[in-house]
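Handout, page 2. Input:
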Amino acid sequence: MKKIFAVALATVTTLAMSVSAFAMDAPNYYYDFEGNLNNAGLAGETDTALTIVGSGAIADDARGKVFDNVTGSASAQRTDYLKLPEKFLEDLAAAEEFSLSMWVKSPASNNDVTNWTEIGDGWAPIFTAQNPDADWQWTVFGVRGTMHVNNGGFFDNNAYNTNNYDGYLDDNEWHHLVYTVTATKSVVYLDGEVLNSLDRTDTGDAFSDLYTIATIGGYHNHCWTDRDSHLLFDDVAIWFDELDAAGVASAAAGEFIQETETEEATETGDMTAVLPVVILAVAAMAVVVAMRKRTVAE
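Output:
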């Protein structure tokens, strides 16, 4: 009887852990492109949707709905990109840490990929937050895994680095990218492994309240000549926190998606996402109580 009681108790413990730790924290911003550009991470928010600039469009893929950044034959400068909402700029200016997770793929129609091996398009943007009216004030993540954080003054080389493109997009397959920024370092992860890292020794803040635009897929600063990235994007998620290696793995596994759905269900009163686990936990607890009473009686 004691053995049965122990097994039942272990079951309850496991289920309780499943409920309390579905996965990682839900992102502050999350875009899955399933039919729209709304922020799936904040239920009820109306001012956090993305805006398409240029030829980009939601497209069908084996992953589901994704975003095709350039539907034409070739990319151009500051022409095709997703613009993040104004609210994001406000939130970023107040942040001390930042993490961006996304899946990217170079479509077979992309004839720009070979240019990424050259410095001319080596900074084709995946993400930018910047003030294009200034020669500095930016945080940039380039397609080769390059990073540039420059908020304290013009071109501080200690906050800049280059990384030789290793051809990770040449296979026309989906790859998981994460870009993190803190006051002391920036890191780029490719498929769960560190692709590039940068210790920040500049005197500028991690982010700036002078940013006037934030983008995904394009719009490098006016004094740079890199064209917009010609890529497919999916499951773009943003946290105002630093993802460590475990967090990166969880993001790649999509665990935050379940957490997002759970939080939305809690906010809206729709508990169908967690109901099966709750029912099992309650049932298991009932077994524990019954077994305990029987044990005491014996």
